[in-house]
């Protein structure tokens, strides 16, 4: 039987998240055997301390949630996150540059962040809610032409999260050459199974424990 808990990046990215919430998130990740916790950069060091001795990874965000930081700012954020103990980086692509078809810029910024990540996993958030189908196809090709590891659907701060049809589109184009992360909007275990079947490798959710319940 597949260990579905290892698809889960258990997530708390709220602006008002407290230390107590981060502690609870980390302890739940240990008890549920999730793959990682995904948190804001401020809490990376704390999460690393709480998770010490476990195999749960610490994931944080860069250029979040709008993606409109300069490349040098995203690089600095990445270096700082790594220094504080981050194992994985979820960066937001420059969405305007993507929609303006400036693919060279997009690949360059992704590769600069990947270089700064020093071998850590890098996931690129493309914010599907703001993209046309053509944009989504272009986003896949950008990821394929970059050194990133994952394409990721959403920040959770836009108008909608992951949609099954977007995952199917990504999987059709990427063809297992990169990984896919769906974030936001997956509500229960049945939907988790649908997304995994469609080609998802990781799921970002603030409802990880609920997704593990088989109804």
Helix and strand run? EHEHEHEHHEHEHEHEH
Structural domain count:
1
Strand line-up across the major sheet: 1-2-3-4-5-6-7-8
| CATH fold label | TIM Barrel
CATH superfamily: Aldolase class I
CATH first level: which class?
Answer: Alpha Beta
CATH architecture: Alpha-Beta Barrel
Cα gyration radius (Å): 16 Å
Shape: globular
Percent of residues in beta strands: 15-25%
Helical content stands at 40-55%
How many beta-strand elements? 8
The protein's oligomeric status is single chain
- Count helical runs: 9
User: Helices and strands: which structural class?
Assistant: alpha/beta
Walk me through this protein's architecture.
The protein has helices at about 20-30, 45-50, 70-85, 95-100, 105-115, 135-145, 165-175, 190-200, 210; strands at about 10, 35-40, 55-60, 90, 120-125, 150, 180-185, 200-205. The chain is an alpha/beta fold. Helix 6 (about 135-145) crosses helix 7. The model has no long low-confidence stretch (mean pLDDT about 95).
